[in-house]
Write a structure and sequence with these properties.
This protein has 2 domains: 252 residues, TIM Barrel; 76 residues, Orthogonal Bundle (Arc Repressor Mutant, subunit A), CATH 1.10.10. The chain is 41% helix and 23% strand. The protein contains 15 helices and 17 strands. A 9-stranded mixed beta sheet has the order 9-10-8-7-6-5-4-1-11, with helices on both faces. α1 packs parallel to α2. It starts with 5 loop residues before the first strand and ends with a helix.
Length: 374
Amino acid sequence: MKPASLGLYVHIPFCQRKCAYCDFPSYPGQEHLREAYTQALCQEVISRGEALGHPEADSLFIGGGTPSLMAPRHMADILAALRAAFPWAEGMEATCEANPESLSAAFLEALAAGGVNRLSLGAQASQPHLLHALGRGHSWEQVAQGVRLAREEGIPNVNIDLMAGLPGQTVLDVGDSLDAAVALSPQHLSCYGLILEEGTPLSQGVASGELQLPEEETELQMDALIRAKLAAEGFIHYETSNHAKPGYACRHNLNCWKYEEYLGFGAAAAGFFKGRRRKNPVALLDYLEGQAPEEHSVTPEEARFEQVMLGLRLTKGVEDAAFERRQGQSLMAAFGPAIRRHMAGGLLAFSRGHLHLTQEGRGLMNLVLVDFLP
């Protein structure tokens, strides 16, 4: 049976430096391997397309790492391989991440020529001292230039990433960053709360007392400001961290939250297809040497939990009919006691055929999900 939606994810693991908060699989100083990586990646894409019978795809997300460190010819080759292996559906959304300091007109031209129509810029904050603390290598002026270049080169749909809850960040800082981002007229804003990942410089600085995170009440004020300010600007808050102008929700991530299928390519890339999860080797050299991916089947119990866990990130929540189509039973049949308990506690609600978190429940999502664990 043809999947309702099929996404493609491509991981580019190169970066100029590790940001202070980053624990993603990315490798500084390895740009000399870009040619070999492009060849290995294209071969993986072509081989997988042949093995699966060239299914049609309706979304693509190229992430990293820093995709904008790739040479234009590398991106052209990768996009050509993707289009040959997986025919692109009409209205395909194709996104590429970029860092402002490494973004060039030539790179954007190669993206647009290859079919990319959405750019996601890692901006994080407009204040120089916060960018420095994060280990970011760009200025806000480069963010603005990146947006302008994207539109000049034919990529009209732009997302800007921002972060909240940073050490030393104030509510006023968050408001100023939002104002600076909105002034660039993006179609989409991703506003992520900082998550301290073990072993990162930021985590170590907080643990040592050198850095101080904002108080919980301050973080709540930041979150409220983000929602209020962006709603006033016409953005729809459709997922925990994501806000979009009408019609511009990120299709690739939206499909993932709706538990649709996707294929992953490149080092550390993961996929979910035909009830199986597949993940490529994380280490760059292991991938280049052809180490086999890890695969396992998702059990029915895992699948039911995963669809709820992902769907509750959406403000609309999990669609009961979609859950029943995939899982063979309704949400109440699968999780009746947990749903009733958290509805009575004011953390969950049913609206228009969707199970969703209430405003209070959004801040307690992990507490809710414990009762859905298999």
